[in-house]
Amino acid sequence: MLTLTDSAIKAVSRFIKGSADPVGGLRVMITGGGCSGFQYSMRLEEAPAADDAVVDCGGVQIYVDPMSAPLLSGVTVDFVDAIDGAGFKFHNPNASASCGCGNSFSA
Predict the structure, then answer these.
(1) Is the CATH number 2.60.300.12 carried by domain 3-95?
(2) What residue ranges do the domains of the chain occupy?
(3) pLDDT tens, residue by residue, 47-63
(4) For the chain, which residues score pLDDT lower than 50?
(5) Rg over CA atoms, the chain
(6) Strand, helix or coil at 35?
């Protein structure tokens, strides 16, 4: 399924601890759009949906819906903090192409 690097786990943990609302985990999903047809989306959520796959990544619960699961299989999520900005980066072996920003892809 999906994995998070240590850097991504630390970043998500900081966001969870800083949230004013109760958070049970991080939803990672694929939606239509972006430069290449599909784009990644992430948000903190209180609990998984009944049909979600729940993946534990270093103590962080990841929620993945059934439609996104095939496109997220084998994906590694990293958090990069560099001089030109910080953010999550997706490494997707299922992508046949991706855009320059790295936030959208085609399968």
Answers:
(1) yes
(2) 3-95
(3) 999 999 999 999 999 99
(4) none
(5) 13
(6) coil
